[in-house]
Amino acid sequence: MALLEVRDLTVVFERKGEDPFRAVDGVSFDVEPGQTVGLVGESGCGKSVTSLAIMGLLPKRGARVTGSVVYDGTELLKLSDREMRDRRGRDLGMVFQDPLSSLNPVIPIGVQVSEVLERHRGMSRKEAMSEAKDLLDKVGIPDPNRRLTEYPHQLSGGMRQRALIAIALACRPKLLIADEPTTALDVTIQAQILALMKELVQDLGTALVMITHDLGVVAGLCDEVNVLYAGKVVEKAMRHELFARPRHPYTHGLLASIPRLDAPRGEKLTPIKGSVSDNIPWAQGCAFAPRCPNALDLCFSETPAEEDQLGRLLRCHNPVVPGTPAVEEVPV
Amino acid sequence: MTELSASSAGTRTSAETLVSVEDMKVHFPIKRGVLLDRTVGYVYAVDGVDLEIKRGETYGLVGESGCGKSTLGRAMLRLTEPTNGRMIFDGTDFSSLKGEELRTTRRRIQMVFQDPLSSLDPRQSVESILVEGLRAHGMDKGKESTGKRLRELLAAVGLPAKSLRKYPHEFSGGQRQRIGIARALAVEPDLIVADEPVSALDVSVQAQVVNLLQELQDQFGLTFLVIAHDLAVVKHISDRVGVMYLGGLVEEATADDLYAEPLHPYTRALLSAVPVPDPQVEDRRERILLAGDLPSPANPPSGCRFHTRCPWRQQTKCDTDRPVLREIKPGHKVACHWAEDIEAGKIKPHEVAPILVEEMDGMSPDIPLVGPASVTEALNP
C-alpha cells in the first residue's frame, strides 16, 4: 500500500460576492515509501495549494477541501486540529520556498530546531540541543555549535534553507513535502541543496513530494512526475518516459520553450502562445485549449477524461504523437 | 571619479566597437554612526571590469546574486555613478558627459528592467508611457506621425493597437515586459541594456520574450547587453558571454566556446550546477559542487577572489596574486593563474571545506522579498 494516497483532492476558495475559485481540481496521486514524486507546473496551477491541503495548513474559513488524503492508513482531512498538530513535524515534514519568512526571526536557530524534538520526541532541552547540533552538522552547516545560538538573519540563504531542512527532518518523517525548496537560491547553492536532499532521502528512506516549476530539477530528482495545469493533473508518467516522449501538448510545449544548456546554439525556442490566465474552466472543456496548438473543436466543448495509456496518465483529446517537432507558433 | 576629456577618448575605440568599459569600479561606502556618519568600509560591488561590446552583438553577463552584474549595468548607464573607470560609447567618453549632452546621449542607451510591473508607472496609460520618451528627446513631431510610430512600436513587440489606452495592470507579465521593451525601442536606441528581462516571467512566456528580443535585434540592428543569472537563457541569446564573480570578470568567450570548454574553475562549477530538463543527461553528468557561500563583497578574499571555494586551488599564487583576464585562446579570456594546467589535466580537483561566511545573502534577485532591494537602498534609506 502506498504511504500517501491523494484521491480527487479539490480545493475551492470562496469569497463573499465572488465566484468560487477552484485552485485544485480533482488531483490524485500516490507516493510509495522512499519514492520521489514531482508536482510541476507554472504559477497558479495549484501545486502549492495541493501541498498546503495535504498538510492541513489552509484556513478553515474560505477554503473548502474535499476528496481524500490517506497517510499510512489514516485519513488526514478528517483529523482534528490537535491530532493534525501531532502529525505535522513528526510524520509529515515540510520545507517551504522562502526560508527567511518560514523561520522565526527573533528565535535562535538552535531553539527552532530543538523545539520539534521536544514537542514530538519528548526530549529534554539539553538532549534536544545536542541532537539539534548533530542535525545541523548532518545538513552541512559548518560550525554548528556557534550556529545554534545565531538568528536567521545571520545565516545566508543557503544556510537558512539547510536549517529548514534540518527542522523538517528532525523527527525522521516518513514523508517530506518540499515546496520550491531551491527557487530562491542561486544555481550553485541549488546544486548543494538538491544533492543534500537526494542524499538524505536515500539515507533515511524518506518519501519526497517535490513541488517545483523547474523541469530541470524534476529531471534529476523525481521518480514519477505529475504535470499540473489550472488545478488538474494533465499528464503523469515516470520521468524517463515523460521527458523522452511528452504526450500532452502542454508538457510538450513546456519542454520546447525552455532553452537548454546543452542544446546547439541558434536553435529557436517554440513558446506556448498566450499566458497562464488565458484558460477556460475545466467544466466547459480543456483549460489549456485556448493556448494549445493541437486544439480541436471538441476541446472547447467537452472536458477530457483522464486516460491510462501504458502506465502513463493523460488528460487530452488530441495528444502529441511521439516524435513530432513542436509546432511553429507566432506569439500573440 | 576620474574626469577625462571627451575629445581624447575618441581615438581609442574602433568602428565596430560600440561600447568599451575600462577599469570600471563601483564601491559603496558602509556608513556607521548617527551623527558622525563615519565610513567604516566599502562594498566592492564592481571591482575593475574591462569589456567591449561590438556593434550588433548580444553580450551576456552572467553570475550569481551579489556578483555585481546589475551594478555594472547600472554604472555603465550612470544610473549609479562609478567610483572609477569609464565607458566609451561610440567614440565618446560617456562617463564624463554632463547636463544636456548627457541627457541627449542617453537616448541612444536604453534599459529594460527585470520587474515589468514596478518599472511601469501604474497611473500612466501605455500611450503616455511610450510618448514620454519621444517628447523628452524631441521626437514627437505632430499627432499623426507619433500615432503611426506608436502603432509601429506595438506591432514590433507584438501587442494589439488597442493597448495604447490601457494601463499596466490590465496586462499579463509577458505583455508588460513587451511594453517595457517598446518603451526602450521608442527613442531608437543603439544599445539596450536588459537586466534580467525574463526572470520574472513564467517558463512558457519566457520563450516568447526571448524570441522577441532576437527578432528585434535582426529587425533594428540593435546591440544588447543582457544581464541574467539563468545561464541557459544567456547561452541561448548571446554571441559572447562574460562570467562575473565577486565584482570581477573571470571568463569571457563566445557562447559556444564558453559552454563547450569552460576554462575557469568557477565557470565549470556554475555550468555543471545548472539542471538540464533531460533525465538521461542528469543521470550521467558529473556535478562540481562548490563548498560554502559567496564571500562578502565588503571583505573579498585576497588574491584570486575564488580561491576560498576553488577545487583546483594551488599552494602558490592563488591566495596572493589577483589573476588578470588574459586571452589564452583566440577570443577566449580567463582570469586564472592555472587555466592551462587545469585544462591539460595536470591539476586535479580536491575537496574544499566550506568556510563560514558572515551575513551574506545567497538569495537570488528574481524573488521579490521584503527588505532593501539593493545595496544603495540599504545604505541610504
UniProtKB/TrEMBL annotation, chain A:
CDD domains: ABC_NikE_OppD_transporters. Keywords: ATP-binding, Cell membrane, Membrane, Nucleotide-binding, Transport. It holds the Pfam family ABC_tran. The lineage of its organism: Bacteria, Bacillati, Actinomycetota, Actinomycetes, Pseudonocardiales. GO terms for molecular function: ATP binding; ATP hydrolysis activity. Residues 4-255 form the ABC transporter domain. PANTHER family: DIPEPTIDE TRANSPORT ATP-BINDING PROTEIN DPPD, OLIGOPEPTIDE TRANSPORT ATP-BINDING PROTEIN APPD. One of its GO terms (biological process) is peptide transport. It is found in: Cell membrane. It comes from Lentzea tibetensis. Belongs to the ABC transporter superfamily. It is a peripheral membrane protein. GO terms for cellular component: plasma membrane. Its main location: membrane. This is ABC transporter ATP-binding protein. Signal peptide: none annotated.
TrEMBL record, chain B:
InterPro entries: AAA+_ATPase (IPR003593), ABC_transp_ATP-bind (IPR050319), ABC_transporter-like_ATP-bd (IPR003439), ABC_transporter-like_CS (IPR017871), Oligopep_ABC_C (IPR013563), P-loop_NTPase (IPR027417). It comes from the Bacteria. GO terms for molecular function: ATP binding; ATP hydrolysis activity. Keywords: ATP-binding, Nucleotide-binding, Transport. Residues 19-271 form the ABC transporter domain. It holds the Pfam family ABC_tran. The keyword Zinc does not apply. NCBIfam families: oligo_HPY. Belongs to the ABC transporter superfamily. This is ATP-binding cassette domain-containing protein. It comes from Lentzea tibetensis.
